[in-house]
Design goal:
The protein is of the alpha+beta class. The protein is built from four helices and eleven strands. Strands 6, 7, 8, 10 and 11 form a five-stranded antiparallel beta sheet that branches. Helix 1 packs across helix 2 and helix 1 runs antiparallel to helix 3. The longest helix has 30 residues.
Amino acid sequence: LLWSLAYMLVDSTLPGSFHFGTGPEAQSLQGFNAIYFSYITLATIGYGRMTPRGTAANAIVTAEALLGLMGFALATGILFARFSRPTARIVFSERAVVAPFRGGRALMIRVANERNNQLTEVSATVSLSCLEDSPTGPRRAFREMRLDRPRVVFLPLHWVIVHPIDDQSPMWGTTKDQILSGDIEILVLISGIDETFAQTVHARTSY
C-alpha cells in the first residue's frame, strides 16, 4: 500500500510518468491500478501493460524491485530456519508418582519419544522448586534432585526417570501437607541429540 501511494503521488504530480498500453484499461495509475502495478513490480513479473517513464517513476520501481528481492530472500531464509529446525516430540507421563524402589521410595516420571527417529545421548535434569522462609519473607528456592540414572545412550521407546527419596533428597521427610503448603513444583528438562539432524533438542515439563 505504501508503494502504491508513492506511485499514485508521482502519477498525479508528474503526468506522463507511466505509460499505459492500448486497450480498455484506465489511463491513470490510481486505485487498484496502483496496487496491481506495485504487486507486479515487487514480484518482478512485469507484464508490460503499465511501464514507468521518467526519473521519479523509475527510481521508485528500482527501489521496490530491489527490496522485493531482498524481502523474498529474507522470508525464504526465515521459513527454512523455522521448519528445518529439529524439535523434540517427547511425551511425559500425566502424573509424577511416588512408588516403592529398592526397599524405599522414589519419585518416578515416564517419558517417551513420539518420533520415528532415535534420540541419542539423552540426559535428564529434575529440580524441585519450593517456597522457603527467610528473614525477608518467603522466597522460592530451587534444589536439583539426584537421579538413579541421569543419562541413557539412546531413547528407542520410553524411559522411567527415577529420583530415590533418601536422606539426600529434598523430598526426604516431607508430608503431603508440607508439599501442598510449600507450593512445590517439580521441573523436568530432557536434552538429547536428534540422529537425523545431528542437533541437540530439548523438551521440558513440570508437575
